[in-house]
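This entry is passed on directly below:
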Amino acid sequence: MPKFPQDRLLFFTRMMLTLLLGLTIIAGAVALLLIPVLLVRREDFAARLAASGIDLAGVPSIALLLALAAGIAVLAFLFLRQLRRIVDSVADGDPFVPANADRLRNMGWLAVAMQVLLIPATGLVIWFDALPQKPNVHYSDNTSFGGLVLAMLLFVLARVFRVGSAMRDELEGTV
């Protein structure tokens, strides 16, 4: 039985994480499904892209951007699933366990992997923005270090949780 059954904040957090998990599945699936459609109907897309100043060579770039988006969606799903499991352990009343330290460490690596995939994705988006007749959406190379700071924070928290759970186990062993 959960230790905090009436905690509305935990309930809301769990529901939001469940919703976000579903959205990442939908986003990844849509991106993956669009790739074969884009490649099979290449000429149709090329004609539409030509009106925007993008030649037929832009179709594989769009397919690559969709693949990167699907990869980022998968990583985001895995990240959110780990976070949901941590929140579940808080709701159960026992968050300082070695499994949560592992989850935080994994979340740190997932955050790093997302940042790595964002590098070529951002490059492609900037390339599309630099085309002569581009859409009315503008992108810039505003590199954010927030994702890397998040990863570092998660690695530190993973160690804190690991030391905390070891201290708790040691204390329980002496009592």
Notes: DSSP finds five helices and no strands in the chain. The chain has a mean pLDDT of 85. Helices lie at 8-40, 42-50, 58-91, 98-129, 146-174. The two ends are 25 Å apart (CA to CA).
